[in-house]
Structure formats: structure tokens, C-alpha cells
């Protein structure tokens, strides 16, 4: 057996380079790049190996470890999980900074390879700089924090352990069911140790999307369930995108005139103006979709977990409705006491359609149901048109800003967002015909994802304009990758909506009976002069971007045209009304209210809460 002597780090990188993926018939690198911030825990080991591979495996330098992982996550999400980026940071705080991003990838079922440096396996120099010592278990390091938020975790304490660990890592990164973050903790001394690896270990491997057909019995049961329905509503989730089942979804719902609603992750599965698209579902959903969800006798959930925002905390959907859950993961298919149909969405939708065509009387929903869905859809589209127009008075609300940005976006442009009040406004109001045109991280709803996520999205689809919509709170939390976008030449357009604090949570606080407290800057502890007014345009300019501040929607629309013409990242700041959100649509969300309080407002809120809980109980 021929061997090649490599350090453990060199072997990791060579193995990564050997991994390819078939994307629509084209063979591409599974790993098109690595994000790295070097420190003493990875610079001499992985750093040296990455330098040797820099011509074929680019290394990107970021300004924040969590942010570079967000960029990597956005990259793979935009490409429907077909390609993966790796991220490495030094032992200690650098690596622990990546834990939050690992959770983002885990919740959203997105592949991410994390290569954190670790303390010495030999322990000879212990305690080393930045080492967290555990008093009762010497095997623990700070990298054990990755275990709860990794789909696969290993600590490589011998170079030869890669021979069994790396194939398992690739399995998880490329498997539709197991897909999620992989963490390989790499002790800094072992990174530099050499081993005689078999050459066949580095032979090119081409990965293909595995498609699992549905079980015949489950398929027959699903067809029977659909045939018994008169008022079906199909919920399209992110799994529709990842299975590349867009055409199959269109064919299914068009054939049977089934109304379709989308989750945050599923938005874009159908064009916004498709005859079956009734808007998005749930807490921040459309009035049309939510009305239908309360009346439907069958929910066909495709590629979604039906999380609390989609299900209205299990109080929105008609309690008498049956639920059929088509999902590649059995873990998700049995949620909500659903009848499971475990399988690939593309294959299974075709099988369902074929099965429904059998027999003397092809299935159709009740004609009155289709007519009602069409009427509700028309009403909702008129509502969206109305609330997104420039009202021309006072501070603009989020809906007006969303409307202006949406009108500026082209057919294949993308909006990116993650947290605060904007995800609700965007889910209700953003219109896209491009299946990748709506990029929302709402599985973990991680503040700070937005700007770094915009960078990763742009790297994935450089021909699209990427519009990042971000509140002042998220901007202040993580903005450093604006400088990275300029450095790398990946232009993003960021619109910063400044409502002077955490406006979304302030509104929720008031809804739960609380006073304004510690959310808006005016309600926080501060010096007598109050919190400073941040000049976001000046800050962005200091990071190397073009920028400006605008006073109203008319000025915003003009600025967006300048931003599109810019060669580098462009940041537009606008003051907004943090108390004025879109009241149309939406549903209850379970946020617990104190049972006892001296505030009458809280007591009243608790009574409202209990009434909603009663509705929720019917679905449990």
C-alpha cells in the first residue's frame, strides 16, 4: 500500500480538496473555501496547511469568528446545501465564538465544518494560554461546548484518527437527514504531528444528493388521506428548496388547485403571484393563509417542522384538521401527531400525484374551497400593495421601507434578514418570483447574522444584488464584516432601520403588560444626556463602504438606485417608527405572561394569554 507522509493538518486539507459534489451535472468542489482567523491554536498547524493549498482552496480572513461562520452558513443555504465552507479559529475564545453560529447551523439543518484549535493532547505545557481547566474532568476543554450544537463531534488526539473520522464527517455534511454542523476539535500539537497516510484516502470522491423514496404503505395511507379531504392546505417549508422540488410542487398544486402557504424557510417555493400562493403562514403570516389554516380539514406539510411561528404555537390550525407530514427526516415527520410520509420531497410529490390520478374519479378539493382561497389571496395581495406604499408623513414604518426596497430589487435579487421585527414584516410583505430571492435565518433568529449572512449570500450568487435589511440593534451587535465585504470585493447593499433600540421586543413587552424597560434606548439606564445617536452612515464609511443617511421613503428610493450603481458595499441609514408594525395578518404567539403582578396591565395580559392557551390545548 502506497503512503504519503503528512501532518494531521495537511491531511485534513488534502482530504477536503478531494471531496467533490455533483451540482446539476457539474462536478464542483464540496469545499470552495475556508474562513480562518488564526491564533496560537491553529496558525502553525492548519495555517501552514492552508497556505500550501491556497491556490485551489482559498482562505478568507474575517473580523469576527461568529460572523465568518454566519457567512459560511448563508453561503450553503443560498446554494441549497450543495457546497460547504469550513471555519477555523484558535483555541480558547476564538473557537468558543463559533458556538452560537454552530447552533444556527444546527437548528436550520445546514452543513458547516468547524475546525477549532484545541489544547495540547500531551498536556505537557498545561495550563496553556486561553485553556479552560475543568477541576473534575481533565478531558474537557472549552470546545466541548460544541457538542450540544453539532450533529457530529470528534476530538482528533492522534493523526491516524482522521482515517475513520473524516468519512463520518462527510457523511453528515452531505446527508439530507443528518445534515448539520460538524465539529472536529484539533489539538494544536496533534495538528503538527505527521503520519504515513494511505494514498487511496485522498482519491477524489464525488458526492450526490441522496433521494429516499417513500415507503409504499405510508404512501398508500397518504393518498387515502388526501382523497378524503375537501379543504386541503399545503405548507411549503425549507425542505422543498433543499430537495429541489420546486417544479414538482408547482405541478402538484396546479393540477389539484391546492392553496399553498409558505414558512419563513419555504418562502419562494412558488412565485408570489402564483395562482395557488396564499402567502405565508403563522404568527407573522398572511391573513389569507391563516384564515385557511383555521378552516382546512387537511394540512399537507412538506419539508417543514411546523415550528411555533408557523403553527401559531399550535393554536392556529383547525384542531379538527388532519396533518400529513412529508419530510425526509422521520424525526420531523411525526411532529404535531401527524401522519408521517418519510421521503424525499421531489420523489414523493410525484408519487402522490401519480397515486391520486389512479381510479375512475381523480381527486379534487371542493370547488368552494378553491374559490375561497382565490378570493382571500386577492384580498391579501391588495393589502400588501396598500401597506407597503409611501404614506409620506411622519417617520416611515418598517412596511414602507420593505416596500421601497422590494420595488428596487430585480427579479433575481435577494433580501437577507434574521431577527427583530423585520422578519415579520418581510414574511408578510416581501414579494419574490426567484426561489432564492428570500433569505431569512429564522430557525435560530440570531441577531448579528444579517450583514455577515449578506456577505455569504453574495459569495454564493455574485450576479444577484443582495439587500440586507437590519435594525440598529443587530447592526451594533455585529457589523465588522462590512469591512470584509469591501476587502473581498463582494458588494452588499445594507438598509439600516434605526428605531433607537430593540423595537420589536419593546412591542412584545408592552403586549405582555410590561412598561417600556431596557429595550428602547430611552428606557435604559444612561447618563443624563441619554444614549448617543449612532451615525450609522459615518460608521459604515469608516469600515470602507459607501454610505448615506436618508430622511424619508422618497430619498430612500433614490439612494437605492445609487447603491445599485456602486461598485462597493453601500449602507443606507433611515430613522423609522419602532412602534408602528403591520397589524394585518398574523396570529397569536405563546409568550408566557406572569400569573401574578402588581401591574393591572400584566393582569389583563394574563387573561388574554389564558384565552389563547385554551385554543392551544385543543391541538395538544
UniProtKB/TrEMBL annotation:
Q: Which PROSITE patterns match?
A: TPP_ENZYMES (PS00187)
A single Pfam family, by name? TPP_enzyme_C
InterPro entries tied to this protein: DHS-like_NAD/FAD-binding_dom, Myo_inos_IolD, THDP-binding, Thiamin_PyroP_enz_cen_dom, Thiamin_PyroP_enz_TPP-bd_dom, TPP-bd_CS, TPP_enz, TPP_enzyme_TPP-bd
Q: Which residues form the Thiamine pyrophosphate enzyme N-terminal TPP-binding domain?
A: 46-130
Enumerate the spans annotated as Thiamine pyrophosphate enzyme central domain.
Answer: 219-351
Q: Does the keyword Metal-binding apply?
A: no
Q: Which residues form the Thiamine pyrophosphate enzyme TPP-binding domain?
A: 423-573
What is the top-level taxon of the source organism?
A: Bacteria
- Which keywords appear in this protein's UniProt record, sorted alphabetically? Thiamine pyrophosphate
Q: Which family does it belong to?
A: Belongs to the TPP enzyme family.
This protein's name: 3D-(3,5/4)-trihydroxycyclohexane-1,2-dione acylhydrolase (Decyclizing)
Question: Which species?
Answer: Halomonas litopenaei
UniProt lists the gene as iolD
Amino acid at each position: 500500500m502506497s503512503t504519503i507522509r503528512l501532518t494531521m493538518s495537511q491531511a485534513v486539507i488534502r482530504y477536503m480538496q478531494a471531496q467533490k459534489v455533483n451540482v446539476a451535472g457539474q462536478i464542483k468542489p464540496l469545499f470552495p473555501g475556508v474562513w480562518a482567523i488564526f491564533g496560537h491554536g491553529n496558525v502553525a498547524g492548519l495555517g501552514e496547511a492552508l497556505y500550501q493549498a491556497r491556490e485551489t482552496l482559498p482562505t478568507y480572513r474575517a473580523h469576527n469568528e461568529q460572523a465568518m461562520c454566519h457567512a459560511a452558513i448563508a453561503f450553503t443555504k443560498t446554494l441549497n446545501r450543495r457546497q460547504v465552507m469550513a471555519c477555523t479559529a484558535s483555541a480558547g475564545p476564538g473557537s468558543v465564538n463559533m458556538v452560537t453560529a454552530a447552533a444556527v447551523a444546527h437548528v436550520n439543518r445546514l452543513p458547516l465544518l468547524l475546525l477549532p484549535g484545541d489544547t495540547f493532547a500531551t498536556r505537557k505545557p498545561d495550563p496553556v494560554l486561553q485553556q479552560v481547566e475543568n477541576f473534575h474532568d481533565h478531558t474537557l476543554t472549552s470546545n466541548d461546548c460544541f457538542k450540544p450544537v453539532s450533529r457530529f463531534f470528534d476530538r482528533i488526539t492522534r493523526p491516524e484518527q482522521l482515517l475513520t473520522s473524516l468519512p463520518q464527517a462527510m457523511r453528515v455534511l452531505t446527508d439530507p437527514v443528518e445534515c448539520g454542523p460538524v465539529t472536529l476539535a484539533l489539538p494544536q500539537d496533534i495538528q503538527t504531528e505527521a503520519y504515513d497516510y494511505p494514498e487511496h484516502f485522498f482519491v477524489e470522491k464525488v458526492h450526490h444528493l441522496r433521494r429516499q423514496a417513500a415507503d409504499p404503505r405510508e404512501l398508500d395511507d397518504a393518498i387515502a388521506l388526501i382523497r378524503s379531504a375537501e379543504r386541503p392546505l399545503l405548507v411549503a417549508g425549507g425542505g422543498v428548496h433543499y430537495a429541489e422540488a420546486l417544479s414538482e410542487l408547482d405541478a402538484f398544486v396546479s393540477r389539484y388547485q391546492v392553496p399553498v402557504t409558505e414558512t419563513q424557510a419555504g418562502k419562494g417555493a412558488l412565485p408570489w403571484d402564483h395562482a395557488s400562493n396564499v402567502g405565508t403562514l403563522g404568527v407573522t403570516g398572511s391573513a389569507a393563509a391563516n384564515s385557511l389554516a383555521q378552516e382546512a380539514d387537511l394540512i399537507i406539510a412538506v419539508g417543514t417542522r411546523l415550528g411555533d411561528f408557523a403553527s401559531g404555537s399550535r393554536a392556529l390550525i383547525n384542531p379538527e384538521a388532519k396533518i400529513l407530514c412529508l419530510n425526509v427526516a422521520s424525526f420531523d415527520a411525526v411532529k404535531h401527531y401527524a401522519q408521517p410520509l418519510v421521503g424525499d420531497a421531489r420523489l414523493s410529490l410525484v408519487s402522490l400525484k401519480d397515486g391520486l390520478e389512479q381510479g375512475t374519479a381523480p381527486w379534487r378539493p371542493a370547488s368552494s374551497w378553491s374559490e375561497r382561497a382565490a378570493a382571500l389571496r386577492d384580498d391579501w395581495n391588495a393589502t400588501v400593495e396598500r401597506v407597503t406604499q409611501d404614506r409620506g408623513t411622519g417617520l416611515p414604518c418598517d412596511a414602507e421601507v420593505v416596500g421601497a426596497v422590494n420595488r428596487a430589487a430585480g427579479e433575481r435579487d435577494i433580501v437577507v434578514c434574521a431577527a427583530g421585527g423585520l422578519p415579520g414584516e418581510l414574511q408578510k410583505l416581501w414579494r419574490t418570483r426567484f426561489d432564492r430571492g428570500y433569505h431569512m435565518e429564522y430557525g435560530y433568529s440570531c441577531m448579528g447574522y444579517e450583514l455577515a449572512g449578506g456577505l455569504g449570500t453574495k459569495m454564493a450568487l455574485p450576479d444577484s444584488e443582495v439587500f440586507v435589511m437590519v435594525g440598529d440593534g443587530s447592526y451594533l451587535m455585529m457589523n465588522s464584516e462590512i469591512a470584509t465585504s469591501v476587502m473581498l470585493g463582494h458588494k452588499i447593499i445594507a438598509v439600516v432601520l434605526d428605531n433607537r433600540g430593540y423595537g420589536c421586543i419593546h412591542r412584545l413587552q408592552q403586549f405582555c403588560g410590561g412598561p417600556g424597560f431596557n429595550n428602547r434606548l430611552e428606557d435604559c439606564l444612561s447618563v443624563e444626556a441619554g444614549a448617543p445617536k449612532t451615525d450609522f452612515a459615518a460608521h459604515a464609511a469608516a469600515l470602507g463602504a459607501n454610505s448615506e443617511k436618508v430622511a424619508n421613503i422618497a430619498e430612500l428610493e433614490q439612494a437605492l438606485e445609487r447603491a445599485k450603481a456602486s461598485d462597493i458595499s453601500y449602507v443606507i441609514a433611515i430613522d423609522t417608527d419602532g412602534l408602528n408594525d403591520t397589524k394585518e395578518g398574523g396570529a397569536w404567539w405563546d409568550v408566557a405572561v406572569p400569573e401574578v403582578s402588581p401591574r393591572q396591565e400584566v393582569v389583563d395580559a394574563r387573561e388574554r394569554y389564558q384565552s389563547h392557551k385554551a385554543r392551544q390545548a385543543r391541538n395538544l
